[in-house]
Specification:
alpha/beta, Rossmann fold, six-stranded parallel beta sheet, 8 helices, 37% helix, globular
């Protein structure tokens, strides 16, 4: 496994997070099934990583109670149920070699659920999310994650067309909330799964 993955793992553990490394997304998927019982409700945060892994369908097919606004007709209801679920699964925009999680969100539902209101949180990240430090993480978010999400959502923001952040004032702006989780919070059970594959934006 790459040295930067091992370095990120050590720093995240030093900051109080529970960290597991996996060679493939299939291994990470099985670990999730082993860690989450079928009687525990699960909320999903918006994430191309989860989408690419097919996790929502996998959990649903196995009889889990799962909520994801990406897969619901009534998005408002799905968001509410996801917020009140026992387990929350999402990804992160970036994680740094000094053990921080850096995220920018449009509405804040995903980033707030990463550290509040759930018994356990699982954050799934491919190796492509690992950044040197905070500045590198913000660069990645503004010029990779945000433009790609803007293109996926077909919102009317400059980054959709230029491929880089313009710090816009568009009504469709998707970068409204920035959250840095420096350390695992008291009473918060954040589990980070790092996969040695490129996943998501």
């Amino acid at each position: 496994m790459e040295e930067r993955i091992l370095s990120a793992e050590k720093s995240l553990k030093d900051n109080g997070f529970d960290v597991s490394l996996f060679k493939t997304k299939e291994e990470a998927r099985e670990a999730l099934f082993d860690s989450i019982s079928v009687d525990e409700s699960i909320g999903f945060g918006g994430s191309m990583t989860l989408f690419e892994m097919g996790l929502f369908e996998d959990f649903k097919e196995r009889g889990y109670e799962v909520y994801w606004h990406w897969k619901a007709e009534d998005k408002k209801e799905a968001l509410s149920k996801a917020f009140n679920s026992k387990i929350y699964i999402t990804s992160t925009n970036a994680l740094t070699l000094d053990g921080k999680l850096v995220n920018i969100d449009g509405s804040g539902n995903r980033v707030s659920s990463m550290f509040y209101g759930h018994e356990r949180v699982y954050i799934i990240a491919g190796r492509n999310k690992i950044c040197k430090d905070y500045n590198d993480a913000i660069e990645r978010i503004k010029n990779i994650a945000a433009p790609k999400n803007a293109q996926r959502l077909k919102v009317n923001t400059p980054c959709r067309f230029t491929g880089k952040c313009n710090d816009c004032n568009s009504p469709d702006r998707i970068c409204n909330v920035e959250v840095i989780i420096h350390k695992n919070l008291p009473g918060c059970n954040i589990n980070i799964y790092i996969i040695d594959e490129d996943l998501g934006y």
